[in-house]
Design brief:
The chain has 218 residues and is of the alpha/beta class. The protein is built from ten helices and five strands; from the N terminus they run E-H-E-H-E-H-E-H-E-H-H-H-H-H-H.
């Protein structure tokens, strides 16, 4: 069974908030909470599940300030932060870079695409619209991910380490999926995230690196 990712949303408009909750209440996502503002989210009790993603809707409000994003990170340290905007205008990329968010989604996306994009963000991917203006944001995200050796393992989620163990052993995706009781497609998403986080160009390269740091030895 595919793992569920815990999602919370921030949206000022109650009708739109209700609509987002309905759209995002489908596997592999699990709606945990919804707030009307960053202040409300920061003052709320921690949810019973560790949050994977907080989606901040800016469709009806202007900006997410860097100090607001930092407040969310301090309150919910396990959560990735994503923005949802109405259009990819020239002010969005600088704001996203300043707030150091993990992704930006368009409100015009289909429900299926929204869910898939949030799944990728929950898995550690950075998701930004292209083209104009996003090269610096993507480069900043890559720079923050750079490290080497055993310390790099700390940047991988538990599931990513399990997939990495399979890669280090030379197992194909189908075998890894069967062993972890997840789908082939989910394994592919994890492999893509592992490649990005490690800076490897292919699964062979990341498997060799994994063996060097002791993964897959037991």
């Amino acid at each position: 069974m595919t793992a569920a990712f815990s999602i919370a949303i921030i949206e000022t408009d109650c009708i739109m908030r209700e609509g987002l909750m309905r759209v995002l209440s489908r596997r592999p996502l699990k709606m945990v909470d919804a707030w009307s503002s960053v202040e409300e989210a920061s003052a709320a009790a921690h949810p019973s599940d560790a949050l994977d993603v907080i989606l901040v809707s800016l469709v009806r409000q202007g900006r997410l300030e860097p100090d607001e994003a930092e407040l969310l990170r301090q309150r919910y340290p396990s959560a990735h932060i994503a923005l949802m905007v109405e259009q990819n205008c020239e002010t969005v990329a600088p704001m996203a870079a300043a707030a150091r968010v993990d992704g930006v989604l368009l409100s015009t996306s289909t429900p299926a695409n929204l869910v898939k994009s949030l799944e990728l963000i929950a898995l550690g991917e950075h998701f930004f619209p292209m083209p104009v203006g996003w090269d610096d944001v993507s480069a900043q995200a890559a720079d923050e991910a750079e490290t080497s050796g055993p310390e790099l393992l700390e940047k991988l989620s538990v599931r990513e380490r399990q997939v990495l163990d399979g890669l280090a052993r030379g197992a194909p995706n189908k075998v890894i999926a069967r062993h972890l009781d997840i789908s082939d497609a989910t394994v592919k998403v994890h492999v893509k995230s592992i490649l990005r986080k490690t800076g490897a160009t292919n699964r062979t390269e990341v498997a060799l690196w994994a063996r060097e740091v002791g993964v897959g030895e037991h």
